[in-house]
Write a structure and sequence with these properties.
It is a single chain. β14 and β15 form a beta hairpin. The chain has one domain: Methylamine Dehydrogenase, Chain H, CATH 2.130.10.10. By secondary structure, the chain is mostly beta strands. The strands form eight sheets. It has a six-stranded antiparallel β-sheet with strand order 25-26-27-28-33-32, with no helix packed on it. A five-stranded antiparallel β-sheet has the order 19-24-23-22-21, with no helix packed on it. The protein has a four-stranded antiparallel β-sheet with strand order 1-31-30-29, with no helix packed on it. The C terminus is likely disordered. The longest helix is centred in the N-terminal third of the chain and has 6 residues. This is Histone H3-H4 chaperone, CAF assembly factor (CAF-1) complex subunit B, Pcf2. One of its GO terms (biological process) is DNA replication-dependent chromatin assembly. Its main location: nucleus. It comes from Schizosaccharomyces osmophilus.
């Protein structure tokens, strides 16, 4: 694998200064075509190519899309890959389709039009009286689009007509992330009010052509009993590194990881019962997520491609038995059977908050860990899925077989990361940053493993799988450039720093 900061002019203002890149997305079946958008109110289409032997990426400019009047916060291709949806600070969503001729607007740049190799035009406009749109997500069939906005709203649009079909204001603060279940059953929204809301997507009884989101659960706090003379059974009390825990359904978990919901019959009030009674017990409650002071515009959750897992960023974890200690940054993992109640596990060890999670679209066979034992998974699945977590300053890449990061890329950017995107074949991961640059991680097929060719089974709702988690391993070796140095975020009072080489960190196997 190879990590590289792609130092080209992605998005820039009238003074030719780099502007933030807020989002990136690959087009399905698009031959490594991807879109970026940012603070210059434009969307640009690019093509990623890479020489397999040298692993040197090449970015080819294809087109600039100019219709937005303010910053563009998110760009997402439809599941079929034929439409690009973009949304930003003016609250309008544009749906773009390829065109054989340029559609000139007042915002077009003559030089960019001359360099363009393809053209796009607006097919549909989704309008509302809402404020800035922070995140959007397509329905699996491409018929609907959900948007989370700064006015605390969640809205659903018809992608054919642009009509606003449904809206609610269940959150108390900005809606910064939305995710649509690939099995078409659930929709999840995440807000800076420290909560996620889970809905069931259904048709209205009076008019089956109109969708609605039926509110099912708000998950924002967890409660447990703190005892002086006994150890809690749902979250362990000791923190160490790089060691897996036993099955979540086993109450005697090891002391190194953080597993929630050990019993599938856990009550909906989220109380955890001590093993040795409730003598000298006191109830402790804490919020699961960061509050509105988190320095990020986005909290982007994601479903796994099989619909079995939901992972949410911006988590805060306070260890059982240690109520006075400072909470640690985490991401929470929900299974399909726990999505209405509480997370079943968390991944920790991040020095800064996580702001986005993205699954690779490909599913892989389990790796053979030992010659004398069959392959096993910390999440009881017959296959392995890969996902990336973007923190403010680094990207961690996991698989569901070990739940340990097999790659970590740090020291890539001066400022906060904003979004992640996997290529259609799962070999390229792109990440964007407020500093105006985009980075890539290129994998070989050998590093990722063999594709899982069997048909996926629909997850059962009545069972809770076994899950084990671990703290990200502290690498024993670090690959560093001779020019590398410690970098802090941009400070206007300091002289402009030069770009530096990224620092990929490889955990030892």
């Amino acid at each position: 694998m190879k990590t590289e900061v792609l130092q080209i002019r992605w998005h820039y203002d009238a003074n030719d200064d780099h502007t933030p890149i807020y989002s990136v997305d690959f087009q399905k079946n698009g031959n490594n075509r991807f879109a970026t958008c940012g603070g210059d109110s434009k969307i640009r289409i690019w093509k990623y190519t890479c020489d397999y032997e040298s692993m040197n990426p090449k970015i080819e400019f294809l087109s600039t899309l100019s219709r937005h009047a303010q910053a563009v916060n998110v760009a997402r291709f439809s599941p079929q890959g034929d439409i690009l949806a973009t949304a930003g600070d003016e609250g309008t969503i544009f749906l773009w389709v390829p065109s054989s001729t340029p559609a000139a607007t007042l915002a077009d740049d003559a030089e960019e039009l001359a360099l363009a190799k393809e053209f796009w035009k607006v097919k549909t406009v989704c309008r509302s009286m809402g404020a800035e749109v922070y995140d959007i997500c397509w329905s699996p069939d491409g018929n609907y689009l959900i948007a989370g906005a700064m006015d605390n709203s969640t809205r659903i649009y018809n992608t054919q007509t642009g009509q606003l079909l449904f809206q609610n204001f269940d959150h108390l603060h900005y809606v910064q992330g939305v995710a649509w279940d690939p099995l078409k059953e659930y929709v999840v929204t995440q807000s800076s009010d420290r909560s996620i809301c889970v809905y069931k997507f259904e048709k209205q009884i009076r008019d089956s052509s109109l969708p609605q989101l039926n509110f099912k659960s708000r998950i924002h706090r967890i409660e447990y009993l703190n005892t002086h003379n006994s150890k809690s059974s749902s979250i362990t009390t000791q923190q160490t590194s790089d060691i897996e825990v036993d099955n979540v359904q086993d109450n005697n978990s090891k002391d190194e990881a953080y597993s929630l919901d050990p019993d599938p019959q856990t009550n909906a009030n989220l109380d955890a019962v001590s093993e040795s009674g409730t003598e000298n017990a006191s109830k402790i409650t804490y919020s699961l997520y960061c509050n509105e002071t988190l320095v990020s515009f986005f909290r982007r959750p994601t479903f796994s491609p099989d619909g079995f897992l939901l992972i949410t960023p911006a988590g805060k974890l306070r260890l059982h038995g240690q109520p006075n200690t400072e909470s640690i940054h985490t991401v929470y993992i929900y299974t399909r059977s726990s999505i209405l109640r509480q997370p079943v596990a968390s991944l920790t060890g991040f020095p800064k908050p996580a702001i986005a999670v993205r699954f690779s679209p490909k599913i892989y066979e389990l790796r053979q860990v030992s010659k004398h034992s069959p392959p096993s998974s910390c999440i009881e699945l017959p296959y392995r899925m890969i996902f990336a977590i973007a923190c403010q300053d680094a990207v961690y890449i996991y698989d569901t077989q070990s739940c340990k990061p097999f790659y970590r890329a740090a020291n890539l950017h001066y400022s906060t990361l904003t979004d992640l995107a996997w290529s259609d074949d799962g070999t390229v991961l792109l990440m964007t940053s407020i500093d105006g640059f985009c980075s890539s991680i290129k994998f070989t097929h050998e590093e990722l493993g063999n594709l899982y060719e069997q048909q996926l089974a629909v997850p059962a709702k009545e069972t809770t799988p076994a899950v084990t988690v671990s703290i990200p391993a502290k690498p024993e070796k670090e690959s560093k450039s001779s020019k590398e140095s410690k970098v802090k975020e941009n400070d206007p009072s300091q002289p402009q720093k030069k770009r530096i080489a990224p620092t990929p960190l490889y955990p030892q196997n």
